[in-house]
Structures are given as C-alpha cells and as structure tokens.
Design goal:
- The protein is α+β, with helices and mostly antiparallel strands.
- Helix content is 35%, strand content 22%.
- The chain has a three-stranded antiparallel β-sheet with strand order 1-6-3, with no helix packed on it.
- Strand 4 and strand 5 form a beta hairpin.
- The longest helix has 19 residues.
Length: 202
C-alpha cells in the first residue's frame, strides 16, 4: 500500500512488523497510530516546518495561547523595526523575552500599555510546528519523500514498546527504510532503527 494518509501508513507499518504486529491490539489501530504520531513528532526535529501565528496583546498580560501544533518558538519581528533613542518619549523600553512554558506563550516582562501603543497590539511570531499524520492524505504534513523515514521511526517506537514488555524474545521485522529483514531482540532493533533514522534524516 502507498500514500500518506493514516490508513495507508498504518497498513504498511503493520505489514513491516510481521508477527510482532499481533502484540499491538488496541481498538481502531490505536497502537499503530500512536507509533506514527511519535514518529512524526521526532521527524519535526529533523524536517522542521516553520509557520506563523499572531496573538493580540493586552497590557500587563504575560501569557497567551499557542497553536496546538507548536513544537518550539522561533522568532518575532514585533519591535524589531523600531528606531529611536532611550531618551525619546516614544522609546518602548526593554522588550519582553519570549518563552513557551507549559503550552503557553509567555512574554516576560508582560508588555506595557506604552509598548503596545508604540509597537502595536498584534504580536506575530514564527514557530516550528509538529508534523501531522492525518486521516486525509492532503492534510498529512510529512513530505512523501520522507515516508520510509517516518515508517522507520514508527518501527523504532514499536520495538521500544515491545522491549518494555518483553526483553528476552527476539522479533523479526522488515526494515521500513531499507526493506531488509531484521531479526533481533526488540531493544536491539529499536536501537538499530533509531541509528538508521538519524543517518537517514541528515
């Protein structure tokens, strides 16, 4: 099966895990979906997506909601274009430092009413977004060229879970990146697949 929709990716992940796939029996293929989601999150580090978002600032308010797919804050141009001197009446003062803490955007210290008046209430910023493995192929953000890399990373997640359940038995899987048969303990396979993922994602 091919394609970048969730069903196609789950089917190929299952097939590549051979008999090991029988261990993962969550309803609606929940285990395989989890493996793919974790693989997509790991891929965001290697294949970053940059998106833009904006929040409306309020004087004295430090924390703001962020998009659900935000992985890491990148930068903002808010206040970057200001030209002036500290003795000017319009000087905005020290600009806030930006952090993402517990799923919220924090501007510290909180913007003042003077800063908002001088620089605007719209705080636009760039951020690194997580990849999404969607039901609809058109909404999956992973590049089709990285399909095998995504499957390889998902296999590593599956092997890590198997290793936590049983550290003794060996498992045979078909490597999603090279297509080769691999037989070893789940822990060893997980380590092997992670190393291949790192090499392939360069």
């Amino acid at each position: 099966m091919s394609g970048m929709g969730r069903a196609a990716l789950v089917a190929d992940l299952k097939a590549s895990l051979l008999d090991a796939s029988k261990v993962f029996a969550a309803p609606a293929d929940g285990d395989f979906v989890r493996h793919l989601d974790k693989a997509a999150a790991a891929l965001a580090v290697k294949r970053p997506r940059t998106l833009v978002h904006a929040v409306t600032l309020a004087a004295g308010q430090a924390n703001y909601a962020v998009p659900a797919d935000l992985w890491q804050y990148k930068s903002t141009s808010w206040g970057a274009g200001y030209r002036g001197n500290p003795w000017d009446r319009t000087w905005p003062g020290r600009l806030p430092q930006v952090r993402v803490i517990d799923g919220e955007l924090w501007l510290m210290p909180a913007p003042s009413s003077h800063q908002i008046a001088m620089l605007g209430a719209t705080f636009s910023f760039f951020y690194y977004a997580l990849h999404v493995v969607a039901v609809d192929e058109a909404e999956t953000t992973v590049n089709p060229g990285d399909r095998n890399l995504l499957l390889l990373r998902a296999q590593a997640e599956a092997m890590r879970e198997l290793a936590m359940r049983d550290t003794v038995r060996s498992a045979s899987v078909r490597d999603g990146f090279s297509g080769q048969m691999r037989t070893n303990t789940p822990a060893a396979l997980a380590e092997m697949f992670l190393a291949e993922f790192e090499r392939g994602a360069v």
